[in-house]
Amino acid sequence: MDLIEDEGGNTPEFTVSELSGAVKRVIEGEFGHVRIRGEIGRVSRPRSGHIYLDLKDDRSVISGVMWKGVAARVETQPEEGLEVIAIGRLTTFPGQSKYQIVIEEIRPAGQGALMAMLEKRKAMLEAEGLFAPERKRPLPYLPEVIGVVTSPSGAVIRDILHRLRERFPRKVLIWPVAVQGAACAPEVARAIAGFNALSPGGALPRPDVLIVARGGGSVEDLWGFNEEVVVRAAAASEIPLISAVGHETDTTLIDFASDRRAPTPTAAAEIAVPVRRDLLAWTGEMQVRMARAANYRLEVRGQRLRDLSRALPRPETLLDAARQRLDWSSERLPAALVRGVQTRRLALTEAAGSLRPGLLRARATEGARSVSQWSARLAPAHLRLVAARRERLGRVSDRLGGRAIRAEIGQGAERLANLSRRLDAVFAEGTRTQRSRLDALDRLRETLGYRETLRRGYAVVRGDGHVVTGKAAAEAASGLEIEFHDGRLRLGGGSPPKKAAQKGKAPEQGSLF
């Protein structure tokens, strides 16, 4: 340190940096590592990761700083109002002309401080609703897979596996974590979140229930399960969670956030699964009861069925009436068939008798007249249509000329030709249809005429020029004449009939033999 002597005296002069450096060396030289007991006041956590805080008692305040590396590994995180013991070294901060302690280790000042911090944290989390009963989920009765968050090397996991094997063997997934120390809280929180992140039905099965377990210990040993990150992870777990931390008298904050608290890890295994032997016994008992109930139900229904059957008639009685009706109907069936055939034959004979050649001729004449009328009307209609189209064409041609007129004339001529062809075709088709109907009627007339009947082996008998319809008339006649389909045969004497029957005229009814 250089001294600048004043020309007016021998008092040394310092620069601000020189004086600050001198004070720094004095403080750091006189006070190496110190232990300070006090209450944490203001706590600041900037984005750099360092922690700035105040340590105070009833009369004084000293600033403290905890660098990022130290803040990440300490077990107890500073909280406002917590009484702690801070271990570090004193130094100065020339930029603000103040001294401070660089904290290298911090821990609560006794059991009372820990309990006070625990109660404060519990009240805060409870106010957020993380301990509310309605948030707790029911445990599955018989889980397929059980996830266990604990140390893989301790006696806890052996006790859990042994108890599960005794009660009801299940698949167990173990997520190894540290159960005390600075790494405990983050590892437990990551394990709970990791189990919840597993996909159902994936390569690694997702547990149906979780057990967070640790053996007994002091408050400091169990403190990792009081950390806020663990409590929030337990409350956010979608998988039902059983907390089994410490002995029955030990209480941690995860017990309040979990869905079920077990006094010991062994009790957690007992809560997770039922006893297999008890289930088998209960199943056997239910099976016996079900069989007994089924047998009783069948017996009651059988007795009811037998009681109802007594009121029913015998099957033979039910069939007797039907059998008798069948016999009676079978006896009547031949006569009914004969009567039906006779009735339909009589109806056919009556219908055939109502057909006369005169009626057929009248229908044929009417059809021919209708065809003639249509043919007589079609020709004038055709001429009128042609005249009307020509007249219309003449009116239009007065307004048109040149190529358009010739094109219109060509189109009109084509349409006229088409219409003419269609009209001729319609006329010819109508004529053919009417001629076909007339021919059909003529064929029907010929078919129903008496000459066609003669072709089938019948004959017409005439006596003295009149049709003979009975034996008495034939005996009284002086001569008989029999007409066949290929000619007439005269039998006996007598003059020939005065007037021969007209060709095509049907004989009277009853003269065909």
CATH class of the largest domain: Alpha Beta
CATH architecture term of the largest domain: 3-Layer(aba) Sandwich
- Kindly estimate the percentage of residues that lie in beta strands according to DSSP: 15-25%
The averaged pLDDT comes out at 83
The assigned structural class equals: alpha/beta
Q: What form results from the Cα inertia axes?
A: elongated
The percent range for helix content is 40-55%
Total DSSP E strands? 16
Helix/strand order: EEHEEEHEEHEHEHEHEHEHHHHHHEEHEE
Q: Radius of gyration over alpha carbons?
A: 64 Å
Question: Which homologous superfamily in CATH is the superfamily of the largest domain?
Answer: Response regulator
Q: How many separate domains?
A: 4
Q: Which ranges are low-confidence, i.e. pLDDT below 50, for 5 or more consecutive residues?
A: 1-6, 498-506, 508-513
Quick structural summary:
Helices cover 51% and strands 18% of the residues.
Layout of SSEs?
Layout: E1 4-5, E2 12-13, H1 16-30, E3 33-44, E4 51-56, E5 61-66, H2 68-73, E6 83-93, E7 98-108, H3 111-127, E8 145-150, H4 155-167, E9 171-176, H5 184-197, E10 209-214, H6 228-236, E11 241-245, H7 253-257, E12 260-261, H8 265-272, H9 276-310, H10 315-353, H11 357-399, H12 402-448, H13 450-455, E13 460-463, E14 466-467, H14 471-476, E15 479-484, E16 487-492
Helix pairs in contact: 4-8, 5-6, 11-12
